[in-house]
Amino acid sequence: MSRPVRWTYAFVDRPVALSERACAFWTAVTDTRPSEPRGEQEEFVTLLPEGADACVKVQGVVAGEAGAHLDFAVEDVPGFVKEARGLGAEPAAVHDGWAVLRSPAGQAFCAVPWQGESVRPPVVAGSRLDQVCLDLPPSAFDAEVAFWSALLPDWSARPGSRPEFHVVEPPDGLPVRILLQRLDVERGADGGVDGPVSAHLDLACGADVDAVRVRHERLGARLVARHPHWTVLRDPAGGLYCLTGRDPDTGGLPRPGS
Predict the structure, then answer these.
(1) Helices (H), the chain
(2) Cα(50)–Cα(136) distance, rounded to whole angstroms?
(3) 140-187, pLDDT tens digit by residue?
(4) Which helix (H) or strand (E) holds 140?
(5) 3-state secondary structure of 19
(6) Using an 8 Å Cβ cutoff, are 54 and 10 in contact?
C-alpha cells in the first residue's frame, strides 16, 4: 500500500561557507524569515513565511556543489523508505525518525515525518518557488521517470511540453513538484557535465519573467542565459536556478492566447 506524501520541501543546497549568503538571498526572494539554525553543524535553516507553512529550506553542504533536493513529509517514514528501496532507491543515511535516500540515478531525497503542514505560501512579487528539476543523463532518464512515477502513484506523471521533459505533479495543495529533464549528452562525455546527477530550483513567474529577473538581479543574482520560455540565473551562493513562464498559481503552462 502506498504511503501518501502529505507535504513537500524544496531544499536549497549550497556550500556551507556560503549558506548565510544563500539564506539572505532566498529569504528575500520568498519573503520569508530564517529559522534558528539546527543540525549537528547548524547546517539546516527553514525559510518561514507569514501566515502559511514553510516549504523551502537551506542546507549548508560540506561536500559537493550547489544544488537542490526534495524532502517528502509522510506519516509512515519507515514504510515510505521500504517502498522506495523496493523500487530501487538506496539508503544514504538513517537518522532518528528520518532518512536520506538516493534514487536509482543517485539523486538525494529525504523521508521526514509529517507535522501537519497544509497551508501553501502565497505568490511573492509575481513568482513562486514551486519546482525541483532533476538534470539527468540520457541513459538514466527512463529509469528515473519510472522510479518517481511509481514512488508517487497519487501524483500526476506525464510528458512535459518538450520531449526532454517529464512532469511529476503533486495533488492540489502540495507546494513543490518535480520536473525530470533529459540532458543532451552523458555526464562526463565531451561537452557534458562532470560529477553526479544534479538538481536545481525553478520558479513559476507567468508573464513576469523579466520583471522577476530584474528583482533578483537587484538582490544579487547574475544572469546566465535566456531561453524562449525560461531564464537561467546564478544566486549569490553560486547555485543555478531558473525563472519559468509557468503560471505561479497552478504551476502549469499559460493557456494559448493568454
Answers:
(1) 19-30, 77-86, 138-151, 209-218
(2) 35
(3) 999 999 999 999 999 999 998 888 999 999 999 999 999 999 998 886
(4) helix 138-151
(5) helix
(6) no
